[in-house]
Design a protein that fits this description.
The protein is mainly beta and 177 residues long. Helices cover 14% and strands 41% of the residues.
Length: 177
C-alpha cells in the first residue's frame, strides 16, 4: 500500500512542475475553458535577463537613462531585445509607472532603479475582454565604471556583474485598463 502511494506521488511530479509559481486567476481560467483553442496556452513561468547594462547621465547631463538587455523565456520560447533610450516612448497607461517596449510586442519592462520588472502577455491568442500579463522582478547587481563622455555628455556605464539573471514570474493579472 505504501509503495503504490509513493509511486503515485513520483508519477505526479512532472505535472507538479509544469505549472507556473503563481496562481492562475479564475477569470483567466474561465476564458481558457470557454475557448478550447486557448486551453493549450503555455503560461510564462520564468525568464532570463541577458547582459543587462545602463548608461546613466552624470552632473550637468540632462539626457535619459539608457537601458539595454536581452530577454528569454524558455517556457514560451520568446527571445527578444529590450532597450530604452532618448527616443523611446512610454507604452504604459497614464498615471502608472512608465513601461518600455521590447522588440517582441508581447514583452515590456519597467525600470525603477535598482529594480527591473518584466511583463509578458500570457496566452496571447485568448479571446475575451481582458489581456493578461505575467510579471516578475529582478534587481541586477551592477558594476559601474567611472564617468566618461559620449555624444550626449558625461555618463556612467553600469553592467550586470553576471551575464545572465534567472527569475520567476510571480503574478498574473489583467493588463491595466
Amino acid at each position: 500500500m505504501q509503495f503504490s502511494s509513493l509511486a503515485l506521488m513520483v508519477a505526479a511530479l512532472p505535472a507538479a512542475f509544469a505549472f507556473p509559481s503563481y496562481k492562475i486567476p479564475v477569470g483567466l481560467s474561465r476564458i481558457l475553458l470557454a475557448n478550447s483553442a486557448d486551453a493549450a496556452c503555455t503560461y510564462p513561468e520564468s525568464f532570463e535577463i541577458q547582459n543587462f547594462q545602463t548608461l546613466t547621465p552624470t552632473g550637468g547631463n540632462d539626457s535619459t537613462v539608457d537601458i539595454h538587455f536581452g530577454f528569454f523565456d524558455q517556457s514560451t520560447n520568446i527571445q527578444t531585445t529590450c532597450q530604452r533610450n532618448a527616443t523611446s516612448k512610454n507604452v504604459g497607461k497614464p498615471n502608472l509607472a512608465p513601461r518600455w517596449a521590447c522588440d517582441n510586442s508581447l514583452v515590456e519592462f519597467i525600470w525603477q532603479s535598482p529594480k527591473l520588472t518584466m511583463l509578458e502577455v500570457a496566452c496571447p491568442g485568448t479571446t475575451g475582454t481582458n489581456r493578461w500579463e505575467a510579471a516578475g522582478s529582478a534587481v541586477p547587481n551592477l558594476t559601474c565604471a567611472a564617468a566618461s563622455c559620449n555624444s550626449t555628455g558625461y555618463v556612467s556605464q553600469c553592467v550586470s556583474s553576471v551575464p545572465s539573471i534567472q527569475r520567476n514570474f510571480t503574478s498574473i493579472q489583467p493588463t491595466p485598463p
